[in-house]
Design a protein that fits this description.
heterodimer; A: alpha/beta; five-stranded parallel beta sheet; 10 helices; 5 strands; B: five-stranded parallel beta sheet
Chain lengths: 221, 160
């Protein structure tokens, strides 16, 4: 099912004409109705007019997406700056296009998004790739910093830290390594001290490389 | 129109020649044809498969010297050593934009990782020659060349 949301009847009829035959179509002309329909009919696609009254931009869109995370949202609007359009994509929308888009082209957009594609302008896809590069660089820095700090651990401490990272309890670790629970605790105390962490959850996140040690200040090591 | 310099770092001589020929016919494109020539500090066929860091540095040095705007490179080459070559090219020759050449065995995850290490696009070896020409100009003007489906996967990576 496809849900169309706009306060403009002209928009609704034009969009409906463009996507007729792709799936059953439902329409909402205000935010309350839209919220209700999202929950009731669980549409695969939502064509959403960014000018829908009370929508409240990206925040409002995020709220709508929470009502039915499976729905793929396509935003239709007037001309947008790269910055605004990118902020919409950051909320998780799968496509953006002009609200006066040609019917035939709208059908292409909906079909592409239905097939799991992203309908994004080429100039914005550059932002997307840059963000991927930055995230990867940051992750690598964290990985490197964590690796260097973990290298300060003794072999036994490293072994125990890794097992904590795998979610094992002190008891399980003691049994696995054939040592007492008290010894495990002693090693862990030393691990916490060396890595300057307070609890095993943080240790587990660090071992898994998903958390920096005290933010970026330690990344320069 | 300013010409775009293109180099091809495909170790398969047959494929490299074919791609060179396709690109040489393109308007505003200059192909640097001998960048992988043996005896010119670049690894020869077969040597690339397991290049040591020394030869990787030579490749980077060669690219830094030639400064092609676009460098076509096999995905297989790019993933060696945890994407070390791509990473080095991205750092040392930021003005050179790498386009990955893929075959049917290419996995999306590998492509995404290569893009994360600085590649600006990917194309199948078997793509129609006109797409290589288009990709060169699109990437030259600062955009990227990947499928919409791939963009969707990249977006998922960025958001989660």
């Amino acid at each position: 099912m496809i849900l169309l949301a706009s306060s403009s009847q002209d928009n609704l009829s034009r969009w409906e004409q463009g996507i007729r035959g792709l799936a059953p179509i439902f329409c909402s002309t205000n935010l309350d109705s839209l919220r209700g329909e999202l929950v009731r009919i669980k549409p695969v696609i939502l064509l959403l007019d960014l000018d829908l009254p009370k929508l409240d931009g990206p925040n409002g869109i995020l709220g709508l997406m929470k009502l039915n995370p499976e729905t793929r949202v396509i935003i239709l609007s007037g001309a947008l700056s790269d910055e605004i359009e990118w902020s919409l994509f950051r909320t998780g929308v799968r496509g953006c296009c002009k609200s006066d888009i040609e019917s035939e082209q709208l059908q292409n957009v909906v079909q592409a998004v239905q097939q799991g594609e992203l309908w994004i302008r080429r100039t914005l896809s550059w932002h997307l790739l840059n963000e991927l590069v930055m995230i990867t660089q940051e992750k690598n820095k964290i990985k490197q910093a964590v690796g260097e700090l973990l290298a300060n651990l003794t072999r036994r401490e490293y072994e125990i830290a890794t097992l904590v990272g795998n979610g094992e309890s002190n008891k399980q670790i003691a049994r696995r390594l054939d040592i007492t629970e008290r010894t495990v605790k002693a090693h862990l105390t030393e691990v916490f001290r060396k890595l300057d962490v307070a609890d095993r959850l943080k240790l587990a996140l660090i071992v898994k490389g998903s958390m920096p040690l005290h933010g970026s200040t330690r990344l320069g090591h | 129109m300013e010409t775009v310099t293109v180099a091809i770092a495909d170790m398969d001589a047959g494929r490299r020649t074919k791609l060179e020929q396709s690109l040489q016919g393109g308007e505003g494109i200059t192909v640097l044809t001998d960048i992988m020539a043996p005896g010119d500090n670049a690894p020869t066929d077969g040597e690339f498969q397991d290049y040591e860091s020394g030869s990787m540095e030579e490749i980077v040095a060669k690219i830094a010297q030639l400064k092609p705007r676009i460098l076509f490179m096999n995905l297989d080459q790019s993933i060696i050593g945890d994407f070390a070559l791509l990473d080095a090219l991205h750092r040392v020759c930021p003005e050179t934009l790498v386009v990955l050449l893929t075959d049917r065995t290419a996995q999306d995850e590998q492509i995404i990782q290569a893009l994360a290490y600085g590649a600006r696009g990917c194309l199948s070896h078997e793509a129609d020659p006109c797409y290589f020409l288009k990709a060169v100009h699109v990437i030259d003007r600062g955009e990227i060349w990947v499928t919409r489906k791939m963009l969707s996967k990249i977006m998922d990576k960025v958001l989660h």
